[in-house]
């Protein structure tokens, strides 16, 4: 059996559609596929001059910038693997990922120089420093083998240990094709990326762009006015959003209507509140709910245009190349399993963790849901105790583990509570050894975990709710708060 | 490395779009994807009752009928391989293919019963006979492994020995995806199939249909009025044609215009005359020329919407997952090579013939052409001496071989001459041992080769043009005729 080989996707698109827009920025700047290819190839040769080569793991710590896209494609021309770092993580969190992923080079924009310098990784360079380098004369990849690894992104899962999800080119390819078969491919499509490119929800837009020959409308960060401007004046047809963004957009829209050119808000990042979906439907806002995780290279179950209005609240059906099933003892709610060529083949250097979630191609998502009588998926509960706050995944176990590291804290429990702005926010419960001030705990936490993970409340309790096996029952934590 | 697995494509589409049209007939009849799935699954179980099972090679001898589509999908549910036979072949030609492909069962429509009965293949049944059978209770395929073989179709190539091209599910899948990335996928698409489904140009429309969730508008055979009716009144958006069809359609169109819903005539089957392409352009007829062969599972190089009018006469660029190159000593015209996951991995039981044309994934097409400075392919000459007549491939060597079998004929040479109606027709040159009448030769030929292959002229000559190595120089034959 042969590994499937295709031409390098950016080179190919530059050949087919040299003068079409690949990237559009809010200031009106645009880059064609030919320009993007040329810049990426030159960039690859400059990186090669720093010593980057095939098989190297190169981390990118960056906000959504054109240079980040160039850097990602450049790494593919070198057959190096891009490790995409969440810029909101603390130094400790980043160092864990850099070490775990065997990263040997770090790339970042000028404004993150301080953060990058604080990381003990010897070989690193800012975008500007790379640009100043001379391109090395080397041969670049002309083809892509779908089974080769392309990116690594970290996700914590339920164990509290972040694990590097390996995405092959094939995972990204099949994800893009699955999405195309669901949404169609229209000549005028333009996809807005306001989600971070270091998450698969953002990165997948870039991949679709090079495969479909479609411009990405890139925002450095989400801003409701900028998104509206892009939809109303700049012809954006598809926007990837998480609940908190959709909420703000619908609010901002008021009683107005979007132009008919807007054909899809692709909604990811956890179940959305039904009232919001109903309001969107009332306003003719085309919301396509979806379900996916880093391990599935973005959406793997998505509503389509025909069903978006009929099945409000459902995440839809598995994309064409994928399958979904729910395993339950009573034929109703159970764990959601998915299968398909977009699903990761595993975590980097974590065969045990991989084997735990992947069996015969089926991925145990940890999320609970059910299929209705027409086979539409409804997600009813997040993977175990996952908190999704403004589209970011927060794993209680991770915060608990840091809290328990403080000498004054004996044990800790973390759970999520609903929040008007962020969907959910974490709150913590601690059993202490000695008295300790809230501020002191928060300062300690700030040193170790990213800001978005900081608990909004910390409650001192006499004991944590535990079951017969002495396992923490996080679902009961919020009841303690109410008492 | 794992074999890529996807859900069974028809079951999947029936799940996603149960009530959408899968097949539409000229009489207004339609079949939804759910109905097509149910019929195909029942058909599979009936075939199983005849003993058909996984790995069996089952031949289908049929015109374009709904039952043929059902039979093809039924075989996929059984993991059997469909051997698709050209109904225009003679008994001898068919027997060669049936034996070579190890066919153990033959399916045909009632009206071809006589032809089928004349073939010495023990297990055979008409559509009606299969329908009357009781469905056997067996488990059907739920998934498709892309590396599994799905169809075998015969092509003669230059050696005169017909060879069975094996298409895996993956070859068909990638072909459909490559086409989608070129033409886009629009909600209202409806693809007209007037080309025979036993050719890959016709069959590929069925595969796109189940993958895109798009109706096939099926014609039993080409008829310019029916095609116009389908485009003008029935919303057909894409039509696969060969030159002779396009010619008739453009003639029939006169000074009228097609509705804007028609977005593509996908033109295959050999280079088209430039005057026709220019006239089509003048009339705003959207012709997308393409290049492909059975070995590439249909088109592999195709013009796109942007370039169709700019590059009249070109076959375009390789589809997204494919590559094309021209090998020549002087950087101009040379042999065309193609590569991509839609390219067959070889001929059935013919490793030598396979190795002759396939090296490192590159397929030597035998056709001559060049790439212009923007990388567009222009095909200047057919594979060796191939004659393309009304979209059917005719290999001179095959006719020569039959002619030489006649006791009165010492040697024979065949070439093509241009023909107003068919594009090209074969003519023959024979060196005789004893005198023989034209009619006698023709009667002899009719017994052995399909009608469309019959030479339109037979010239008796003293000697055939041969080169220094005594090899027949077919290109000089037409000059003898003029003398």
Features:
483 residues, nine-stranded mixed sheet, Rossmann fold, 15 helices, globular, GMP Synthetase, Chain A, domain 3, six-stranded mixed sheet, alpha/beta, homodimer
Chart the SSEs and their pairings.
The structure is a homodimer of 483-residue chains.
Chain A: E1 5-7, H1 9-16, E2 21-25, E3 30-32, H2 33-49, E4 57-61, H3 66-78, E5 81-85, H4 91-100, E6 105-108, H5 113-117, E7 124-126, H6 127-132, E8 143-145, E9 149-155, E10 163-168, H7 169-183, E11 191-193, H8 200-212, E12 216-218, H9 224-232, E13 238-242, H10 243-253, E14 264-268, H11 274-282, E15 287-293, E16 298-302, E17 317-318, E18 323-327, E19 334-339, H12 351-357, E20 358-359, E21 362-371, E22 377-381, E23 387-389, E24 392-394, H13 396-403, E25 409-419, E26 423-432, H14 438-448, E27 457-460, H15 477-482
Parallel strand pairs in A: 2-12, 4-5, 4-6, 5-9, 6-7, 11-12, 11-13, 13-14, 14-15, 26-27
Antiparallel strand pairs in A: 1-8, 2-3, 9-10, 15-16, 16-17, 18-19, 19-21, 20-21, 21-22, 23-24, 25-26
Helix pairs in contact in A: 1-2, 2-3, 7-8, 9-10
Short summary of the structure?
Two copies of one chain form a homodimer. Chain A has 483 residues and is an alpha/beta fold. Chain A is 31% helix and 28% strand.
């Amino acid at each position: 059996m042969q590994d499937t080989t295709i031409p390098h996707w950016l080179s190919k698109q530059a050949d087919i559609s040299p003068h079409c827009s690949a990237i559009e920025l809010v200031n009106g700047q645009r880059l064609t596929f030919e320009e993007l290819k040329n810049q990426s190839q030159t960039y690859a040769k400059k990186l090669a001059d720093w010593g980057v080569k095939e098989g190297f793991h190169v981390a990118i710590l960056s906000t959504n910038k054109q240079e980040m896209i160039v850097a990602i494609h450049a790494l593919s021309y070198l057959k190096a693997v891009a490790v995409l770092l969440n810029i909101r993580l603390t130094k400790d969190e980043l160092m864990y990922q850099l070490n775990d992923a065997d990263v040997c080079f770090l790339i970042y924009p000028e404004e993150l120089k301080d953060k990058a310098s604080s990381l003990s990784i010897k070989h690193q360079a800012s975008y500007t420093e790379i640009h100043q380098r001379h391109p090395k004369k080397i041969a670049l990849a002309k083809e892509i083998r779908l089974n080769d690894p392309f990116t690594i992104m970290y996700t914590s899962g339920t164990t509290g240990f972040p694990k590097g999800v390996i995405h092959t080119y094939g995972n990204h390819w099949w994800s893009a094709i699955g999405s195309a078969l669901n949404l169609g491919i229209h000549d005028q499509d333009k996809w807005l990326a306001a989600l971070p490119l270091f998450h698969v929800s953002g990165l997948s837009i870039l991949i679709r762009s090079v495969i479909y020959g479609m411009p990405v409308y890139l925002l450095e960060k989400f801003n409701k006015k900028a998104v509206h401007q892009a939809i109303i004046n700049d012809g954006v047809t598809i926007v990837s959003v998480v609940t908190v963004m959709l909420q703000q957009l619908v609010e901002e829209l008021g009683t107005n209507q979007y132009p008919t050119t807007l054909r899809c808000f692709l909604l990811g990042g956890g179940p959305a509140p039904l009232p919001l979906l109903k309001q969107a439907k009332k306003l003719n806002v085309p919301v396509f709910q979806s379900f996916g995780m880093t391990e599935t290279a973005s959406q793997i179950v998505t509503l389509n245009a025909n069903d978006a209005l009929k099945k409000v609240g459902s995440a839809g059906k598995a994309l064409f190349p994928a399958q979904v099933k729910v395993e339950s003892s009573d034929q109703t709610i159970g764990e959601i399993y998915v299968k398909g060529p977009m699903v990761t083949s595993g975590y980097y250097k974590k065969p045990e963790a991989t084997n735990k979630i992947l069996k015969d191609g089926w991925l145990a998502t940890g999320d609970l849901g059910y299929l209705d009588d027409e086979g539409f998926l409804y997600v009813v509960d997040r993977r175990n105790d996952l908190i999704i706050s403004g589209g970011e995944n927060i794993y209680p176990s991770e915060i608990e583990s840091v809290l328990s590291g403080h000498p004054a804290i004996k044990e800790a429990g973390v759970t999520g509570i609903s929040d008007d702005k962020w969907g959910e926010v974490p709150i913590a419960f601690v059993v202490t050894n000695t008295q300790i001030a809230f501020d002191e705990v928060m300062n300690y936490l700030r040193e170790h975990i990213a800001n978005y993970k900081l608990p909004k409340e910390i409650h001192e309790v006499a004991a944590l709710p535990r079951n017969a096996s002495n396992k923490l029952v996080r679902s009961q934590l919020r009841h303690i708060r109410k008492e």
